């Protein structure tokens, strides 16, 4: 996947999470550093309604929609299409900082078989 958008719930982060934050994302069996490219909206955890569009930061207890960009190629799917590849944990400082589900994926074009890089 080139990038994907996900609903994330921040559980235990000591400070604030801003655009550009790069923790390790554990999705299925892969553990890859992934950048919070853009925090699209902060939302109410119970109703799912948007509280704030394009917030500067999110903190503990917040739910948000985020555009994530993996640093290396990563296999993910939307939670609605394939649940095991649609769930992930965000880890930093050896603890789980947040959890989330993937809403949509921007797939990378597959290279032709046998093509040299």
UniProtKB/TrEMBL annotation:
Classification via InterPro entries: GTP-eEF1A_C, Transl_elong_EF1A/Init_IF2_C
Alphabetical UniProt keywords: Elongation factor, GTP-binding, Nucleotide-binding, Protein biosynthesis
Gene Ontology MF terms in the entry: GTP binding; translation elongation factor activity
GTP-eEF1A C-terminal domain boundaries: 3-103
Pfam short name (any one): GTP-eEF1A_C
CDD domains, per the entry: EF1_alpha_III
Signal peptide: none
Family of the protein in this entry: Belongs to the TRAFAC class translation factor GTPase superfamily. Classic translation factor GTPase family. EF-Tu/EF-1A subfamily.
Protein name: GTP-eEF1A C-terminal domain-containing protein
Organism annotation: Picocystis salinarum
């Amino acid at each position: 996947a080139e990038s994907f958008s996900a609903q994330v719930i921040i559980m235990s982060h000591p400070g604030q999470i801003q655009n550009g934050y790069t923790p390790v994302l554990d999705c299925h069996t892969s553990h890859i550093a992934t950048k919070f490219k853009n925090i699209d909206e902060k939302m109410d955890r119970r109703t799912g309604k948007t509280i704030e569009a394009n917030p500067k930061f999110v903190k503990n207890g917040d739910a948000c929609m985020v555009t994530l960009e993996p640093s290396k190629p990563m296999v993910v799917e939307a939670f609605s299409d394939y649940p095991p590849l649609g769930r992930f944990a965000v880890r930093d400082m050896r603890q789980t900082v947040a959890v989330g589900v993937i809403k949509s994926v921007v797939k990378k074009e597959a290279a032709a078989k046998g093509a040299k890089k």
